[in-house]
């Protein structure tokens, strides 16, 4: 019996992070938010006063940045050089540049090496956009989590307004549609559903229902522990 590897992919705002984190809690598995890792790089780029065109500097950041994901009081906290950036990496200014940074080949190579190292021993739930297709192609369970653009925009709007950000729902809808286009059309590890991934549409179901569906898939495996 072994601790399996669960890969959850999908577009922005589909609920991947929330679902993956809860699944990790229920299974006592390590949750790895790969999107947060790219957001951490984007945050550092902004902190250093760089732009998305400063490719060499961005690569240097990706290869040297000290990112830690710590599970604290039921939540995964993201640290860069011991500084808690969990809230700051969700700022819209960070969201706007993440797609550009994530498509830089050398940045992805650095993050993929780190992610694969984190998952090597199993007992991991990892979410992102290319986990089942590229980062962990041999994952034991692969889920492609999605929802309509309108539903995803509503969720992101509620999340941001609850945190005090002033954002336009219409603008968020446009941003998510543009993000989808960039993620699906990028040359490096585009967002696609792995051939052996199970499609789970969360438009009309709750987070808890999505979690239960994934846990059921885990329980159906003969080698699951």
Any chance you could write out the topology, listing elements then pairs?
Elements: E1 5-9, H1 16-27, E2 30-33, H2 34-47, H3 55-64, E3 67-72, E4 75-80, E5 83-84, H4 92-102, H5 105-119, E6 124-128, H6 131-135, E7 141-146, H7 149-162, H8 169-185, E8 198-201, H9 207-219
Parallel strand pairs: 1-6, 1-7, 2-6, 7-8
Antiparallel strand pairs: 3-4, 4-5
Helix pairs in contact: 1-9, 2-4, 3-5, 7-8
Structural commentary:
It is a single chain. This protein has one domain: 3-Layer(aba) Sandwich (Rossmann fold). The chain has 225 residues and is of the alpha/beta class. The strands form two sheets. A five-stranded parallel sheet has the order 2-6-1-7-8, sandwiched between helices. A three-stranded antiparallel sheet has the order 3-4-5.
Question: What labels would you give this structure?
Answer:
9 helices; 225 residues; three-stranded antiparallel β-sheet; single chain; five-stranded parallel β-sheet; alpha/beta; Rossmann fold
The strands making up the biggest β-sheet line up spatially as 2-6-1-7-8
Which segments are poorly predicted (pLDDT under 50) over 5 or more consecutive residues?
A: none
Name given to the CATH architecture: 3-Layer(aba) Sandwich
Percentage of residues in helical conformation: 40-55%
Concise summary:
The protein is an alpha/beta fold.
